[in-house]
Task: inverse folding
């Protein structure tokens, strides 16, 4: 099962290497990774998507906590969250296919950010499923390149239940 | 007052941490530190290989309970330390390792003797640092000691570029350590203590499993009090040896691959294991799926990550062993466990530790028994790794914590002798012996020069079977006697080797000479001594539970 973990870490040199090293030597696979600063200057947030059962996840969490520079570990599994990824997709496009692609872009509320006579660059944000679906729809036209960020998440403010 | 970072670190270590001795080896990147050392009163023990420095700091820490300190230069100096750091890490021993680094401006340029020490030691330290700003040096050194000796103890490394050592700073130590992400929990949760007490009350066949954590937290007295109150047998892990005197009537030896059969039978038949400061390593449990199948487990450990890592406890207690035991003693009701003891006594009678005595060849087990008798069970026993280690563990009954020093987790051959040097420096008044094999002793034999120049009367007893005995044993039992590369037919003359280093040496070939030679060695007090004892090559360590096997696979003899 996939879990999204958010690690609040002290913004010190080598901290990402510590996390990556811990995951690799304990045999945990990182599916997606996003690292950036937070609203607090000396803290960074590392958002990770990992696979594993409850027991594996418990160990990952505890092992991560053992790192001196890890301040907080949150598991967002089963928690209502807003999750986002961003992708830039370079798709083949000429006069005959451009209109159809623009239609898709509108349906998915993506943006065209670069145009040439041979291709378009499309920017899309959303959860993983949305980006996967968009990519699948574009495939028949020919995807030349795709760049995708790691997932970031934020817990929803309103608790529905 | 302005002083160099090197001077400030030495001042800090002496004044704030009470450090009396450090173990090290100079080199280009640490000349600044050694220059400051030259004018200080801090004792430095010059080892002959950096690995020796790390093991000596480790042996010093294990035998005294204080933090051990070692220092080495950049590049090869640092990489030579790593085996010793990893050894300390696996056994949760508090040491602080200081390494020199190339000057700040040269970092990352593949400079002479440059290696990414912080990167290399990340997985084998509790934490590590690279100091790039001299003004952070004292804060970092303070944090390093704090992290090493608190919570689950362990090695911390501080990498210091050569120019940082020489930078001038104001001597100002932060009043306290403030680490956002490091807050060890020492106090047990009252509810879990209550649940544990209830389980203990209900148990018919309770057993206490004491590990290195009991020794690390100085909880031996509390352990004994607790065990006596519930009249439960106490087995230990290899690392827990000494947490209860092995002559105590509740003591049932140590469990695991080469533990006494009765110890393994007892824990496997128990219905409740009260595990304190242990990590249920593969060498202790054998096949974990079939380990103690009917036992509920109360797992007390300071490290939350140990709970549920290898076994699933019924009651987890994240706490310092000493505090948890203090609480438990208060709440548990006295027990007798009469039927259970009957069974255990039966096992003890039926399956004692034993070997076939011989009158013409010297049996290694007999050697340990004689050393035990002649030192009245009082010596600090340090071991190398392999058969010598297991025989020492089986036949030398220790009386107190910190008396048995061995590389349990990493299993480092070459650990024993330098660790014994550290132990002797921390315990000048005690007899320190290294039980060695002819393989292991050659891994750090150069430290004879260290011991000789420090006039340390460490006694090395080599159980010389002219082979790498433990691997040979596995080859005999599991690889159809194909003795691939384990027979050491060409060996140095250890007697002469000792003399070459300015130490004493003797060789024992006849059983009649054994006692007299051990006595001779024990009476030497001004120099290291090697006693090279010729034992039989074919002797195996039994009992043995083959790796990954269950107790029903145990080979008794």
Result:
């Amino acid at each position: 099962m996939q879990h999204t973990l958010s690690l609040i870490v002290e913004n010190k040199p080598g901290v990402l290497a510590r996390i990556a090293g811990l995951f690799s030597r304990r045999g945990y696979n990182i599916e997606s990774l996003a690292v950036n600063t937070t609203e607090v200057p000396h803290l960074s947030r590392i958002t990770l998507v990992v696979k594993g059962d409850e027991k594996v996840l418990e160990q990952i969490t505890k092992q991560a906590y053992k790192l001196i520079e890890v301040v907080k570990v949150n598991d967002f599994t089963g928690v209502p969250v807003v999750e986002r990824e961003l992708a830039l997709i370079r798709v083949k496009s000429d006069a005959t296919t451009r209109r159809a692609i623009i239609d898709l872009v509108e349906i998915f509320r993506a943006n065209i950010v670069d145009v040439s006579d041979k291709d378009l660059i499309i920017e899309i944000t959303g959860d993983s499923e949305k980006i996967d679906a968009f990519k699948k729809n574009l495939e028949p036209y020919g995807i030349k390149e795709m760049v995708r960020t790691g997932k970031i998440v934020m817990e929803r403010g309103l608790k529905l239940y | 007052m302005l002083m160099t970072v090197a001077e400030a670190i030495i001042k800090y270590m002496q004044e704030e941490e009470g450090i009396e001795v450090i173990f090290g080896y100079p080199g280009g990147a640490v000349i600044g530190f050694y220059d400051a050392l030259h004018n200080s009163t801090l004792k430095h023990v010059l080892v002959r290989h950096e690995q020796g420095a790390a093991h000596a700091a480790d042996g010093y820490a294990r035998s005294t309970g204080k933090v051990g300190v070692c220092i080495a230069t950049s590049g090869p100096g640092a990489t030579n330390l790593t085996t010793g750091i990893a050894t300390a890490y696996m056994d949760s021993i508090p040491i602080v390792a200081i390494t020199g680094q190339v000057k700040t401006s040269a970092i990352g340029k593949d400079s002479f003797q440059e290696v990414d020490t912080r990167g290399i030691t990340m997985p084998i330290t509790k934490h590590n640092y690279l100091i790039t700003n001299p003004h952070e040096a004292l804060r970092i050194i303070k944090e390093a000691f704090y992290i090493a000796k608190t919570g689950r103890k362990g090695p911390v490394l501080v990498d210091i570029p050569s120019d940082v050592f020489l930078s001038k700073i104001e001597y100002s130590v932060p009043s306290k350590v403030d680490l956002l992400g490091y807050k060890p929990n020492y106090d047990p949760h009252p509810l879990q203590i209550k649940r544990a007490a209830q389980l203990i009350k209900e148990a018919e066949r309770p057993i206490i499993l004491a590990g290195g954590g009991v020794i690390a937290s100085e909880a031996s007295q509390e352990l004994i009090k607790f065990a006596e109150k519930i009249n439960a047998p106490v087995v230990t892990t290899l690392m827990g040896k000494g947490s209860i005197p092995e002559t105590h009537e509740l003591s049932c030896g140590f469990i695991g691959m080469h533990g006494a059969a009765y110890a393994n039978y007892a824990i496997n038949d128990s219905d409740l294991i009260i595990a304190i400061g242990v990590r249920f390593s593969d060498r202790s449990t054998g096949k974990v799926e079939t380990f103690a199948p009917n036992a509920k487990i109360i797992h007390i450990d300071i490290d939350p990550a140990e709970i549920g890592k290898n076994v699933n406890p019924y009651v987890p207690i994240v706490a310092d062993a000493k505090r948890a035991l203090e609480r438990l003693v208060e709440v548990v009701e006295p027990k007798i466990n009469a039927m259970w003891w009957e069974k255990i006594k039966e096992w003890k009678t039926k399956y004692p530790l034993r070997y076939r005595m011989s009158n013409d060849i010297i049996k290694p087990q007999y050697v340990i028994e004689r050393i035990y008798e002649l030192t009245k069970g009082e010596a600090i026993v340090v071991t190398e790794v392999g058969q010598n280690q297991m025989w020492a563990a089986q036949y030398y009954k220790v009386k107190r914590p910190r008396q048995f020093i061995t590389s349990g987790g990493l299993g480092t051959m070459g650990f024993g002798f330098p660790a014994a040097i550290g132990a002797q420096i921390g315990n000048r008044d005690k007899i320190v012996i290294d039980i060695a094999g002819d393989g292991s002793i050659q891994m750090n034999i150069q430290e004879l020069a260290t011991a000789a120049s420090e006039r340390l009367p460490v006694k090395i007893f080599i159980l010389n079977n002219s082979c790498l005995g433990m691997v040979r044993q596995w080859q005999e039992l599991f690889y159809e006697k194909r003795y691939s590369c384990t027979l050491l037919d060409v060996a140095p003359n250890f007697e002469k080797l000792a003399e070459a280093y300015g130490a004493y040496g003797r060789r024992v070939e006849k059983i009649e000479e054994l006692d007299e030679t051990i006595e001779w060695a024990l009476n030497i007090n001004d120099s290291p001594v090697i006693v090279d004892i010729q034992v039989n090559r074919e002797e195996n360590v039994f009992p043995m539970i083959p790796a990954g096997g269950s107790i029903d696979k145990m080979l008794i003899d």
Q: What stands out?
A: The CA atoms of residues 373 and 396 of chain B lie 9 Å apart. Chain B touches chain A at residues 118-119, 122-123, 126-127, 130, 147, 179-182, 303-305, 307-309 (CB under 8 Å). The longest strand of chain B covers residues 95-101. The mean pLDDT of chain B is 97.
